[in-house]
Fold each of these.
Amino acid sequence: MCGVVGIISSNKPVAGELYDSLIHLQHRGQDAAGIMTYNERFHIKKGTGLIRDIFDEQNMSRLLGKVGVGHTRYPTVGGFSIEEAQPVYTHVPYGIAMAHNGNIVNYTDLSKEVVEKDRRHVNSSVDIEVILHIFAHAMESNDRASDSSEFFDQICDSVKTVYGRVKGAYSVVSTIMNNGMFVFRDPHGIRPLVKGERKNDDGSVDHIFASETTMFYALGFEPTGNVLPGEVIWVEEDGTVHSRIVEEKQFTPCVFEYVYFARPDCIQNDVSVYRSRLRMGQNLANNWKNKYPDVLPDIVIPAPSTANTSALSFANELGVRYSEGLYKNPFIGRTFIMPGNEERKRSVRYKLVPQEFEISGKDVLIVDDSIVRGNTSRQIVKMIKEFGAKNVYFVSACPPVKFPCYYGVDMPTRTELTAANKTNEEIREFMGVDILMYQEVEDLKEAVTRKGEHNIDRPCMACLDGWYVTGDINEQVMESMENQRITERSVLK
Ligand code: SF4
């Protein structure tokens, strides 16, 4: 999972606002980040680690120009070095810079093809570079366009070539030297991409494209909806906007954005993430009342902080006190997106501190957003017990995660997923709780799609039900991606 942003302004430099935007997207990736702008030439700064550690006054002052792209990285394909940080760029046939959020399913084949057939040089193991070369190669086969309309046709044709060759999920934000910014989203719209506008005093309009709306308010942008699945949008330097749906398929945005990744104040695909989490808690509570009418906990505690919203509505629905019985140190990163399991295990106790007065002698119900590997949940339960809870119940706002994600979320190996290898009863025992209850798949879907003027056909829930919308995930692909992941991890050790 990554965060991506692009800003094109008619009258002011964008580097500062790209930095601010990345701060508002930091929760989507903490491994590396980069900003690339242009005026008469490209300017780039990339680094590993947190945004605030990469950028400073000196390197920001070099990022000149009114058009630029920013990226914060959480790796799914590729390693953890600066070479894998985005944006990436090429000078042929134009100066093109690109950043994306997503994952390519057929990366291994494509990276070979790009070198052997397209004769382009691949300089990293990051999948956006393959998209960049396929796009640039397609643009190269055109004669120079005589006007904007012809140039937009060429961009759309080249994106169509990308759609034809690149399988998977990707939202791409890109600049073309002297020609502004263009963006596109995969035909199923699996990864998010929102857009916004800001009117300037002189009547001109600035444009923003981002993974989430989280920075819009701070920067004065009004949300204007989403880049649609299969849509290409090109904003010229003079502010002229061109858009076209290049390919239409079933719209299946990632359900995990609502469960875990997106910030709750964000609207994605015209659905409020916060409201969807409230509905997850409601549905979960109704299910609890049906299954365990005689079990009423003394307090409901969220596993902070993604589960706070669902736990709040769960407690309300049950008529039980909501308690912040686990204090979260806000200065420690999200455990799920830290590379390496050892780091994850160690960090739970640094991050969460149980409050004895809230817990001791009580029947405690913990609400978590999901159980992926199960280690964090197990440690939370252990801590709650150590602080004197009588009975511990655990509910997950997300159904069992049984299948790997090949669309940009870091859970690719089946052996890592606890629900892929254990029954619910075995997981309950492993976690050491008295009752374990998961959200039903249909209830999660209902929570996301109940309200909002959205046009979601059905969220992607492949990690829950094994139905991969792109239709190209078979045993061979699974093995190849898992091996790739295992190799990358062993290189890191
Ligand atoms: Fe999101 Fe799961 Fe689909 Fe991956 S498989 S895109 S995590 S819903």
Note: DSSP finds 18 helices and 22 strands in the chain.
Amino acid sequence: MSSRSVMWNMLRNTSLCLVFMFLWFFSVKATVSYDSKAIIINGERRILISGSIHYPRSTPEMWPDLIQKAKDGGLDVIQTYVFWNGHEPSQGKFYFEGRYDLVQFIKLVKEAGLYVHLRIGPYVCAEWNFGGFPVWLKYIPGISFRTDNEPFKAAMETFTKKIVQMMKTEELFESQGGPIILAQIENEYGPMEYELGAPARAYTEYAAKMAVGLGTGVPWIMCKQDDAPDPIINTCNGFYCDWFSPNKAYKPKMWTEAWTGWFTEFGGPVPYRPAEDLAFSVAKFIQTGGSFINYYMYHGGTNFGRTAGGPFIATSYDYDAPIDEYGLLRQPKWGHLRDLHRAIKLCEPALVSGEQTVLSLGNNQEARVFKYKSGGCAAFLANYNSESFAKVAFGDMHYNLPPWSISILPDCKNTVFNTARVGSQKSQMKMVPLTEGFSWKSYNEEPVSYDDNSNTVIGLLEQLNITRDASDYLWYSTDVNIEPDEAFLKNGQYPVLTVLSAGHALHVFINGQLSGTVYGSLENPKLTLNSNVKLIAGINKISLLSIAVGLPNIGPHFETWNAGVLGPVMLSGLNEGRRDLSWQKWSYKVGLEGEVLSLHSLSGSSSVEWVEGSLVAQKQPLTWYKTVFSLPDVDNPLALDMGSMGKGQIWINGHSIGRYWPAYKASGTCGNCSYTGTYHEKKCLRNCGDASQRWYHIPRSWLNPSGNLLVIFEEWGGEPNGISLVSRTVESVCADIFEWQPTLLNYQRQASGVIDRPVRPKAHLKCSPGQKISSIKFASFGTPQGVCGSFVEGSCHAHKSYDAFEKRCIGLEACSVSIAPEVFGGDPCRNILKKLSVEAICS
Ligand code: GAL
């Protein structure tokens, strides 16, 4: 070989090597970084749309569909917390199966082609029991949570490292070719720092250093923490975050929790947030330079078992999220946000590289314009006035902006989307009973009486110290001796028993009879019982069933909060006046008899004698119910209607569905709620005066075709015959659309230079798969009023409004009708802005 060809070969080999190294670098070592404008993935700045789906709040069988629906809704990223107490239920014993199979969840997100934002915490808040901390953590000697405390730091570090290592082993970080592009350490620690001072600041430094030291190859964030140390990005959580800016000019503006609604507490009404305002808040964030937004929650799901925090957090964690608790699309929220995401993505090139200018368009109106070098331009036109429309001039055009809205113009000329103009359909859901009721058997357990030979001490003990949260229930029992000469035995003026408890709920049994129930609330978990008690001469059995309803998940040192009967416990109205029972002997029993016997399980349920038929207990406390049923032939998600019951827990085939408490009625003011004006969690409420939660989701995968064991424990008395299995389905679908409302189609036509008249927008109506549109409940093209479910005609109404839909939609699963006068028999009122409102029944 000539020296020339040797050289040539060497050169070729070297360049091949370089190509390989280059490819390897970018396929394996693709890194995620950031600058002032955005998160950078593979060298590209990105506007990222993310949504929270917490894996244990649904089942693995639901995950692929939820993730797909998130992708179809325009999401790039799925965000989840990591739930320490689910993964390490007892110290050193780990669990990563079933709903806690974190790796599987992340792999599914990757398969769908989405990224992951992993919020390791390990403190997570999240309305989750104990904020995600295992209860055993509280009992590590010398521990103090979330501060500069060695035992705490050691424990949180061990868990954080374990999770990071697990992700590395599975090659799940983006730097390894995986989907995780971001991680989070701690959670909203800023307010804690403010409260706790210097030790908290030291803890922040420590946590940041520890996390960064783990070498994940992806950026870390700290949310709601203004002093997040470099290189950690501090991010915003809230209903609005446009006002926010990160602590350093070289960090991007990120919104880790855009609250799509709010959580429900037992005793509280159900909050919801209008889609128009949510879209407005997101557009406002993006137009002020925001480049990452995460919906908290995108799918809220269910607090199965005893995972709800609080206290008093409901079992449903629906959150009014774009995907509802059952995994169905919540419309129009899901569709409206999808349209918003498309509009934002059309602006992405301008947003990530353009320079921003702000132009005033009026008193309460402005334009935010992003121009970039290649000549591109995107604009956001905002009307902040919450009362009135605004007509604004921008460029050489005029734009009509509805109140409290932002229009998006990806080419600085044509509107593709306005946050207050919902093009997507609205679905009204219903719960359809599938059974006439169940055939129940019942078993009553007895209140636990004082027993000298059992766990007996002088005085009253804190509840969590005894139960270690192995059960919600703790029995406090004592005896009271009443002399035959007590005056009340003759005059019938029974003494009053007063019990002070640190929470959360309490049933009092006197000589085996329920004689009082009290409970607190999320705002005030403490309670006081004052109840006349029918004592008899001789020994009286006093049994207090104290109940925890989820452990606190937020607040400085929430690990120190007490639960249970701490006293005093007093009897008044005796001959001697008052008798303090607090310092006599009490016996303690953790949990219910039925829990000890595992009555909820197939094997345990046969360990007692159940009664049936006319003997089945009605309105009786401490009652276990069981039945066996077959799975009905429907495809829709399932739930139990527990409206006739009091308070307790539900199990299906041994899986805990969660706590139920329909007897706790929602107090608050529910009224009409406008999308305009600043939103807060008390602004838009439903269910006032009704059960905070009546329906309880049963995941499909927990059911068999037949032989399903349903077990219920009722604490204070309910009507089991009122319980029914229901399916969730669409009742009706509505569209409420203005003529000439901006659409993606028109935008694309205009932007690509098609100059003829814009195409009319269409009303798209779609029932659930398997359903058909059976009738048109309402249709009016003109000036109809009201909202879906209660539309009424206005003064202008096209006489063929109904005909158009009846002809095109009846008998079909889905239909589309163009919103043009000729479709409805001609223009009913010229020169007036018209809209179409329609409601179609699905069956
Ligand atoms: C945030 C917290 C979340 C969740 C939310 C309310 O402050 O970070 O974990 O608790 O509030 O739903």
Note: The chain has five domains: 47-330, 350-420, 430-443+596-722, 457-589, 729-842.
